[in-house]
Amino acid sequence: MSIIKKSAIIKSRMFLGTSAGLLTILLWSSSSVTITSLPHIPRFQLLWFGFGEAFIIGSIILAFTGRLQEMVQPIASWLTAFCGLFFFYVFDYLGLSFAPPAKVTLLSYLWPIMLVIALAILSKRQFHIAYLLGAVMGLVGMICLMPADKGSVINFTVVLGYIFGLLSGVVWAIYSIVNRKYAAVPTAMMIGVCGGIALVSMAIHFMFETTIMPNSLKDICIILYLGCGPIGVAFLAWDYATKNADLSLIGSLSYLAPLLSTCWLVLAGRASVTFSLLFAVLLIVGGAVVAAYPLKKEKGS
């Protein structure tokens, strides 16, 4: 009976972990339409505001529930989370600064397929080819979403931007895998990590950027959403997902993020419906269905 109960608990955690991963993907998909609404706000200032807000709100919630001590965890788990989040953003920012955004985004979004392949090599349990096929379909679909960069040239600066874009993807894939080692560490620790990233981002902002305060209620609302959603809840949910869900599955499903991001841009009037978009929808949704097939088969058995 205890074995059955233990199995049920593991399945429940995996379901909640997968749900948390899907929530993260949904929140991340709104990042593009959110950040592009604030082109006048420097990038590290946005990180400072977003992570700072997540830290303040999260700390208040932990204080009211008597769980502040959960932010105090072993240094290794802290460094893993801090380096994963911070360097992902730094490399992504540098890549977008030096090279065409569409191609940098494509290189950065190689992380799901890196994740799936790495897990195929490292995992001791049976690996479903459906995960790899789903990830490849998602990658091809995402390529269809990327606009052509007219007049782009290749030089040292652009190549450097591509390298930074690729590094951001590598960092995120490694973080997502390594974070599994700290499954016993409470997700509440991430609130403290958000505070650390906010402090470092603030320091970098004051060293290299000019402070531009939000000049409208709309800007303030967008920043508040950024801190609560794509930065706040999203990273806590991803932490829980990487510790409890099937990483191969959520890696394959992560290609839904650029698809949903494009859909948000269409709804906001910043992109139009094209054949490439419809074809991408078919590939990405199809890839997600293929990737989820082993899970459905497992439930049916």
From TrEMBL:
<feature type="transmembrane region" description="Helical">
    <location>
        <begin position="78"/>
        <end position="98"/>
    </location>
</feature>
<feature type="transmembrane region" description="Helical">
    <location>
        <begin position="187"/>
        <end position="208"/>
    </location>
</feature>
<dbReference type="InterPro" id="IPR050638">
    <property type="entry name" value="AA-Vitamin_Transporters"/>
</dbReference>
<feature type="transmembrane region" description="Helical">
    <location>
        <begin position="247"/>
        <end position="267"/>
    </location>
</feature>
<feature type="domain" description="EamA">
    <location>
        <begin position="17"/>
        <end position="145"/>
    </location>
</feature>
<protein>
    <recommendedName>
        <fullName>EamA domain-containing protein</fullName>
    </recommendedName>
</protein>
<feature type="domain" description="EamA">
    <location>
        <begin position="160"/>
        <end position="291"/>
    </location>
</feature>
<keyword id="KW-1133">Transmembrane helix</keyword>
<feature type="transmembrane region" description="Helical">
    <location>
        <begin position="104"/>
        <end position="122"/>
    </location>
</feature>
<feature type="transmembrane region" description="Helical">
    <location>
        <begin position="48"/>
        <end position="66"/>
    </location>
</feature>
<feature type="transmembrane region" description="Helical">
    <location>
        <begin position="273"/>
        <end position="295"/>
    </location>
</feature>
<keyword id="KW-0812">Transmembrane</keyword>
<feature type="transmembrane region" description="Helical">
    <location>
        <begin position="220"/>
        <end position="240"/>
    </location>
</feature>
<feature type="transmembrane region" description="Helical">
    <location>
        <begin position="129"/>
        <end position="148"/>
    </location>
</feature>
<dbReference type="InterPro" id="IPR037185">
    <property type="entry name" value="EmrE-like"/>
</dbReference>
<dbReference type="InterPro" id="IPR000620">
    <property type="entry name" value="EamA_dom"/>
</dbReference>
<keyword id="KW-0472">Membrane</keyword>
<dbReference type="Pfam" id="PF00892">
    <property type="entry name" value="EamA"/>
</dbReference>
<feature type="transmembrane region" description="Helical">
    <location>
        <begin position="154"/>
        <end position="175"/>
    </location>
</feature>
<keyword id="KW-1003">Cell membrane</keyword>
<dbReference type="GO" id="GO:0005886">
    <property type="term" value="C:plasma membrane"/>
</dbReference>
